[in-house]
Amino acid sequence: MAGLELLFHSVAAELSCAQDALVCYLHWSLISRHYRCLGAGEQPGTVEKKSEMLPAGWNADKDLYTLRYASKDDSCQLLLKGIMMDGSMILNVLDPKTNKVAALTLKVTDYVDPEHLTAFDKVFKNTDELQSEFVKHIISPFEPPKERVPAKEKPKREKSPSPPNPPDHDPLWIPPRHPHGGWQPHWSDPLGPFAVGGEDLDPFGGRRGGMISDPLRSGFPNPIIDPSAGLPNRLPPGAVPPGARFDPFGPPGAGRAGPNPDHLPPPDYDDMFM
């Protein structure tokens, strides 16, 4: 509380009641917040200058204290009135430029000991609470809003890089593509001796072998059935997996042997030379 002791001793002879000491403390609070006193009373005098001291006649009326203040840069002026009522001081503050007001009620004996008006080290009590209340309700409302300093962004935690997908992995393909051997996917051998009926029992198990006879699943070359039959161009490699149940798109195309009379002879007809 630098400066309060000097101010107190400068007016100690004028202190005659507890409210005088309280006004002295409130005056120092304003001075420490960069305000200066212009004088006593509501109307300005003919000659005024800013001062850190209490003006003459500041405590002439023990029931009504009126003091005027201005900030050092003249951006704000305050008219302070302290009205005594039932042992409490009702503070009213007005900014004449903006007509903004603030108010605070203080019980005098909560902050001033009337038995030690001349002893600086004993006259004031609960000064932290008094200072906090006065600044919060009387001084802060007239201060310009502080610019918000943007909070520092917390550094983002770097996520541990996920392991890269294997070079042959592609989630859009089932099964995944294999770079070696071209575009051809891998299929299990359809000729397993115990695979008969396995696919019918577990169609999603990847096994081969069912009860439906399919020439393409026999495992032996079949030049007769061509998957590309009926198409203008041949299917790309791997379009029809080996051993898959597949119906050609159309009738057999070019390259298939023509019909032979011995393929479907009439019933009970045994003439090989016909």
UniProtKB/TrEMBL annotation:
Entry keyword Acetylation: yes
One function term, GO molecular function aspect: proteasome binding
Gene3D superfamilies linked: 3.40.1000.30
Main location: cytoplasm
Residue ranges annotated for the PI31 proteasome regulator C-terminal domain, each copy included: 182-251
A GO BP annotation: proteasome-mediated ubiquitin-dependent protein catabolic process
Domain named PI31 proteasome regulator N-terminal: residues: 13-145
Keywords from the UniProt entry: Acetylation, Cytoplasm, Endoplasmic reticulum, Methylation, Phosphoprotein, Proteasome
Protein name: Proteasome inhibitor PI31 subunit
Organism: Eublepharis macularius
The organism's taxonomic lineage, starting at the top: Eukaryota, Metazoa, Chordata, Craniata, Vertebrata
